[in-house]
Amino acid sequence: MAEKKKMPPELKEMLRVGFNKEWRKELRKSIPAKERMKISSQKMPERGPEERNKDFNEVNIGLDAKLAKKEAQRCLDCANPGCVMGCPVGIDIPTFIKLIEIGDYVQSVRKIRETNSLPAICGRVCPQEVQCEETCNIKKAKGEGVKIGNLERFVSDYESLKGDVYIPPIQPATGKKVAVIGAGPAGLTVAGEMARNGHKVTIFEALHISGGVLVYGIPEFRLPKSILKSEVGYLEKLGVELRENFVVGLTATIEDLKNDGYDAFFIGTGAGLPNFMRIPGENLVGIYSANEYLTRVNLMKAYEFPDYDTPVFLGKRVAVIGGGNVAMDSVRTAKRLGAELAAIIYRRSRVEMPARVEEVHHGEEEGIEFHFLTTPIRYIADEKGRVKAMECLRMKLGEPDSSGRRRPVPIEGSEFIMEVNMVVVAIGQSPNPLIAQTTPQLNVGKWGNVEVDWDTMATSIEGVYAGGDIIRGGATVILAMGDARIAAAEMHKFLSTRKKKPKAHSAKSKK
Amino acid sequence: MAKILRRERLVPNIHLIEVHAPDIAQKSKPGQFVIIMPDEKGERIPLTIADWDKEKGSVTSIFMVVGTSTHKLSLFEAGSEVPVFVGPLGKPSEIKKYGTVLLAGGCFGIAAIYPVARALKEEGNKIITLLDVKANYLLYWEEKLRAVSDQFLVSARDSYYSCKDYIPKTLQNIIKKGSKIHKVISIGCTYLMYTCSEATKSHGIETSVSLNPIMVDGTGMCGACRVTVDGRTKFACVDGPDFNGHLVDWEELFSRRKSYFDDEIQSLCHWEKNNFPR
Fold first, then answer.
1. What is the pTM of this model?
2. How far is C-alpha A50 from the chain's CA centre?
3. Residue B99 has pLDDT above 90, yes or no
4. Which residue has the higher pLDDT, A387 or B156?
5. Is A46 exposed, middle or buried (0-12, 13-18, 19+ CB in 10 A)?
6. Averaged pLDDT of chain A
7. How far is CA A282 from CA A321, A377, A420, A447, B257, in A?
8. In what helix (H) or strand (E) does residue A200 lie, and over which residues does it extend?
9. What are B183-198's pLDDT values in tens digits?
10. Given the DSSP bridges, would you call strands A287-289 and A422-425 parallel, antiparallel or unpaired?
């Protein structure tokens, strides 16, 4: 949800400077606001549902230059842009949109990259409808804000296609070593920022491919792996070292890395602990955690079995328990793998679903069934120990709980049996416990979340910072990036005030 | 990428693989395992760490050839590289002074027993090693194991497959003979560990097994390796792999290990068709 906060003065100043540039004034004059408000929102071209629900290619095709220009023209270039406040990392949205309008895509993506190191990714997976597009000033007037996400995607894809990814100026080498633990959205962002500040950065990643949820969690049809590859390639161009197959906490502890000369740490190990309901039958064959199901399909490419060795069940009647993005990803994946019944089983109603609105909409078109106000209470096995059915209970909504959403209340006597031969439990992911278990002085909350000072992202250990799902539980890419930016700024401050290493390093020339 | 230093066949179907992994060699402890992936299209599979060399910077594992992944591993030569060799994973085995410890194992378990026996011996325990093999020529690492055992016994049968409960029978006899055994550690295929646990139950001897469920990531993030121990769900990769053999829900483990039986056969046939001339 867009958080109400005060705009930082530097951001306010930057927006003011941009707003007052000559070319911006000319552009605003060229099409008066009234005319702009008459332009209807440009629809993102999509592949047809019956075609796309059988393969893993992207659903959204992407705007072309004509559509992008028209959408960019809708933006009024407000003196007080509501969109910027809705963005968790404070991107200078008006500037990048106006640059699209005049056709300067290269400068537009550079503008975004000043704040957001993963624009092609965020353009696809951010829940813009509850962030920048929600707070857009036009939304209040016209009911539909500027399609900022589609524009972000347009201009970053352009950059990728051209192959001309902009490498920003890198500060002179500081001689300080930074260890980033986890190559997910938070870790990748910290790595980029710290490398630009002249520090020597190493990312330690437990899996064999970097990206975290971007590679194992989010399916190919929402986020092609080629996009991720180029974003990671960009970091390597900045001089970041990537060490995959390295589990911090086991292969080496934070203490070991300190002894190896690392001066600051960022923990971005994510929500890599699946939540189960602990109901009878949950360990039956055919019942997956969403993490396992998605990892088999997305990371291990089980949809290419037997060319790829890792198998995955091809359930014909699949129930996915949950209502978030992970649940939607799981159920749409199951559909693509041949499920005749691919159903969401959610204990609240549609309105309370945390999933991105576009995904729910796409899912409906693709033939996903939604069973609201329903929850499983046990699973039933066949004679071979595989799940063949589940017993469910109907719910109704009562008073709001601590999350602010109405609490589901069981309806007595409403039990019924639903035949399923595969289940994916997608009820949330908790922080992975490995680092906490192996780093004694690290303060950790009761559900495994690393405790931080929310203004600085500093943990209870000096020089060690954290952000993303490891401090929040399963959340979004953009929130992880927001945490990462704060942490990187603080880490840079921390390293700048430490004694410099005795060995002199030659300064890199500024670009 | 991790480089293979050595791959050799020890006995029919059982191979040794030594991989250059200096970080893992520094940190390895008895009872831990690695996850290995033979190639870019391969599976991630767990292999128990059988030995390590800190100076050389290498880690050694033993594997039995059963399906596609182990077939692929068995064809590696020194110099080949694998895209994944990560560890050391899992909680190390508890090494302390028990008194007399009996280690019972078979197949790939023979190698897995070695580092545990060695460490327990160093800790001052009396070590009885009991190994099960289908036939004498399938015994490997005999000298290594004798060197860390006070008593070394082999239960070898002919190839009459269904006579699998022999090791538990031998185990029962040893217990009945009277000398006090303070702990039993059983490592090998699921059935062997299950029957050994059953054999010690009535005698109330603390029994530890090294569970072998299917795994994918090995770091606790997917839950594929979940087992039920004492009525609660545990992840073998982070809570184990060692568990109290008397509290394991063995039926569930047997069932879950068969999850991909048909796929495994399909995969092996597919691989053989593509890799062997007609």
1. 0.91
2. 27
3. yes
4. A387
5. middle
6. 91
7. 12, 10, 13, 21, 15
8. strand A200-204
9. 999 999 999 999 999 9
10. parallel
CA A27 – CA A98 distance, rounded (Å): 8
B91 chain-A contacts, CB cut-off 8 A: none
Instruction: Give the chain A residue whose CA is nearest to the CA of B258.
Output: A285
Q: Which residues pair with B128 in a beta bridge?
A: B102, B151
pLDDT in tens, A120-145: 888 888 888 889 999 999 998 888 89
Cis previous bond, B88, omega within 30: yes
Mean pLDDT of A78-98: 92
Label residue A233 exposed, middle or buried (CB < 10 Å: 0-12, 13-18, 19+): exposed
Task: Test A289 with B222 for CB contact under 8 angstroms.
Answer: yes
Question: What confidence category does residue A363 fall into, taking pLDDT thresholds of 50, 70 and 90?
Answer: very high
The pair of three-digit structure tokens given for residue A127, joined into one six-digit string? 């829940």
Put simply, whether A383 touches B (Cβ < 8 Å) is no
**Which residue of chain B has the CA closest to A429?**
B221
Is A432 in contact with B220 (Cβ distance < 8 A)? yes
End-to-end CA distance of chain B: 32
Sequence-separated (6 or more) residues with CB below 8 Å from residue A60 = A44, A45, A46, A124, A150, A153
Three-state SS annotation for B217-241: CCCCCCCCCEEEECCEEEECCCCCC
Q: Is residue A283 pLDDT above 70, yes or no?
A: yes
> Confidence class of residue A165 from pLDDT cuts 50, 70 and 90?
confident
Task: Report d(CA A337, CA A331) in Å as an integer.
Answer: 10
Segments in chain B forming alpha helices (H): 22-27, 68-74, 109-122, 142-147, 166-177, 190-201, 250-257, 261-275
Inform me whether the C-beta atom of residue A247 falls under 8 Å from chain B C-beta atoms.
yes
Q: Are B154 and B128 in contact (CB under 8 A)?
A: no
All residues of chain B having their beta carbon less than 8 Å from the beta carbon of residue A291 are 221-223
CA pair distance A7, A5, nearest whole angstrom: 6
- A509: its two tokens: 């020339």
Closest alpha carbon to A248 in A467, A442, A462, A438: A438
Beta carbons of A283 and B252 less than 8 Å apart: yes
Q: Dihedral through CA A472, CA A477, CA A479, CA A483, nearest 10?
A: 80
CA distance B91 to chain A (A): 9
The token pair that represents A242 in the structure block: 């990537």
Is B160 within 8 Å of B86 (Cβ atoms)? Answer: no
Instruction: Render pLDDT for A23-58 as a digit per residue (tens, 0 to 9).
Output: 999 999 999 999 999 999 999 999 999 999 989 899
- Percent of chain A surpassing pLDDT 90: 75
pLDDT for res B216: 96
What residue type is B146 in one-letter code? R
Tokens 């992975």, located at residue: A432
Amino acid A417 reads I
> What is the ipTM metric for this complex?
0.94
Mean pLDDT of A476-484: 91
Which residues fall within 8 angstroms of residue A426, CB to CB, at 6 or more apart?
A289, A290, A320, A321, A322, A324, A326, A327, A330
Chain A hits for B255, Cβ within 8 Å: 284-285, 384-385
pLDDT over 80 at B163, yes or no: no
* Side chain identity, residue A48: G
Name every residue whose Cβ is closer than 8 Å to that of residue A379 and which is 6 or more positions away in sequence. A279, A280, A281, A282, A284, A287, A387, A389, A390, A391, A423
Mind telling me how many Å the CA of A113 is from chain B's nearest CA? 31
Closest Cα of chain B to A427: distance in Å? 13
- The token pair at A457 is 């992202």
A470: closest CA of chain B, how far (Å): 13
Q: Do A434 and B219 touch (CB under 8 A)?
A: yes
pLDDT of residue A245 exceeding 90: yes
